[in-house]
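Contributing new complexes? Match this layout with NDP.
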Amino acid sequence: NRQMTLAARPVGTPGAEHFALKTTPVSSIVEGQLLLRTVYLSLDPYMRGRMSDADSYADPVAIGGVMVGGTINRVVASRHPDYREGDWVLSYGVGWQDYGVSDGSFLFKLDPAQAPVSHALGVLGMPGFTAFMGLMDIGQPKAGETLVVAAATGPVGATVAQIGKIMGCRVVAIAGSDEKCRVAREELGADVALNHKASDFEQQLAAACPNGIDIYFENVGGRVLKAVLPLLNAKARIPLCGTVSNYNASALPQGPDHLDWAWSTILTKRATVKGFIIFDDYGHRYGEFAKQMGQWVSEGKIHYLEQIVDGLENAPEALKGLLEGKNFGKLVIRVGED
Ligand code: NDP
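Output block (do not edit by hand):
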């Protein structure tokens, strides 16, 4: 059983030196347990937070511990009444390793006939749920409003952009390359897509939002946030979902302090800013999401972008790339054969 463990806590960008690949014997199971084999591992920005012992909403991974994460597994052996050998499951208890033992908690059965099983790590799972609740409950989209979302080809942003179109919004997508922008327009249906690395990005954003911004779905912070704030309309809504541009930061940014300016902008625009942690705040509404998203996906109204990288040994490098925008769509590691 190969296990990717946390070897050291990174300061700044995580790299290979912060991980160690260990091999342990595969555990045996007792009555009430199942043995799971990992096929897909989800990589997500929050994993950078689990590598750090800074104060957070969740506990850090211990040094020497197996990295946490959502996985799609096959049941190899079962002594649990609800599962049989061969079943597909989504697990939050196995993490970055080939095999895990479960007692049935944090486990959800999947039907491979309904959708490719890996989609339960993206549009039909946690990131899709995040996009759905953040936009619908906090963003409160109305037809004709302008919605801005960055990381727009990632699983959260791409879903936000497409729900925004379903709700009749004008969608301004922001992404980190011209190719990502093309896909945001042509495959996700964004009205405009802008590259946040362009030297005149701020001017491009202002030109793309002639009626101001009603909803800013916050995934990234940084330069994009600073460009958005002056364009907010009165009563704008900001679902505060993530600030990935600073996840690798080890110190406060240098240069002028924008905090007071941002704070008073929120006041004068009478904007609503609401942070949320998806399962903590909305876990009780998962059924509502699953029903609606399942319908939209099966009707072809929501398009899903996924990037699969082979090999558990490549997960550390892929996680580093995710935080730098090297992924294109939902990043998934193929750990083992179907
Ligand atoms: P993505 O697959 O979209 O990956 C992150 C993306 O962020 C990168 O691909 C990159 O896209 C973009 N990015 C990285 N650095 C910068 C930067 N400096 N400026 C602008 N964009 C940058 O991830 P997810 O869809 O999984 O997650 C999106 C956000 O949602 C994250 O902030 C994540 O932490 C948050 N999240 C929050 C949850 C909650 O409960 N609150 C739950 C799930 C996710 P590009 O190349 O386009 O710039």
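Reviewers usually confirm one structural detail per submission. For this one: The chain has a mean pLDDT of 97.
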